[in-house]
């Protein structure tokens, strides 16, 4: 695989990463609470992308393309998970409404990392993206598994950088504003968006 092909694929991944999706709002939600939690969720999302790349490389993700029922099930489960995250985040923001401004909320980093990974793993569009796009960048005489994993690593790196930047900017904005009411509003809005995305995903899956 040439450097030009890798750069072209990275550019495509960057364009897709800039399109707001569940991962973006998930990282935003965690970053508004704690920057480290947002970055941990970003790493989890990148790990999820790598796992999808491995699934494509070994042919497992092809089942999604061949089975509409499997695709629908994963999509519904992913939607339910987003609803769960959104509702949990909203309830957490209500419970913490009275805490002091300078008292940082406690968020377990491994929990946010797992949330980022699970959110990506339960998004079948990631797997279908690799199924549709990766073969166009892999030379016919090249090692399919190795090249697919390489492209997966590129996609994971691009997503990690973008989501980490979102995390840092969001957390810095909260520190700069230093207004608990504004912070709570942003937390609840991001939680509501997560839940709405989950409901929308479920609705489109059962039509």
TrEMBL record:
Q: Mind telling me which residue stretches traverse the membrane in this protein? A: 6-28, 40-64, 70-92, 113-138, 150-177, 189-206
Q: Which UniProt keywords apply?
A: Cell membrane, Membrane, Transmembrane, Transmembrane helix
Compartments, as annotated in UniProt: Cell membrane
Entry's Gene Ontology cellular component terms: plasma membrane
Which ranges form a coiled coil?
none
How does the protein associate with the membrane? Answer: Multi-pass membrane protein
Q: Name one GO molecular function term.
A: amino acid transmembrane transporter activity
- What InterPro entries does the entry give? LeuE-type
The protein's name: Threonine transporter RhtB
């Amino acid at each position: 695989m040439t450097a030009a092909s890798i750069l072209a694929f990275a550019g495509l991944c960057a364009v897709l990463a800039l399109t707001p999706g569940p991962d973006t709002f998930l990282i935003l939600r965690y970053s508004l609470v704690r920057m480290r939690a947002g970055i941990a969720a970003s790493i989890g999302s990148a790990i999820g992308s790598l796992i999808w790349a491995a699934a494509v490389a070994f042919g497992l993700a092809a089942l999604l393309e061949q089975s509409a029922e499997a695709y629908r099930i994963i999509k519904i489960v992913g939607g339910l998970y987003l609803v769960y995250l959104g509702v949990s985040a909203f309830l957490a923001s209500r419970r913490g409404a009275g805490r002091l401004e300078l008292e940082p909320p406690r968020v377990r980093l491994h929990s946010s990392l797992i949330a980022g990974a699970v959110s990506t793993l339960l998004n079948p569009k990631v797997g279908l993206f690799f199924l549709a796009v990766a073969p166009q960048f892999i030379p016919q005489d090249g090692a399919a598994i190795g090249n697919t994993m390489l492209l997966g690593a590129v996609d994971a790196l691009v997503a990690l950088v973008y989501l980490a930047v979102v995390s840092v900017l969001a957390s810095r904005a909260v520190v700069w504003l230093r207004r608990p009411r504004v912070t709570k509003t942003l937390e609840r809005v991001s939680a509501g968006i997560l839940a709405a995305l989950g409901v929308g995903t479920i609705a489109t899956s059962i039509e």
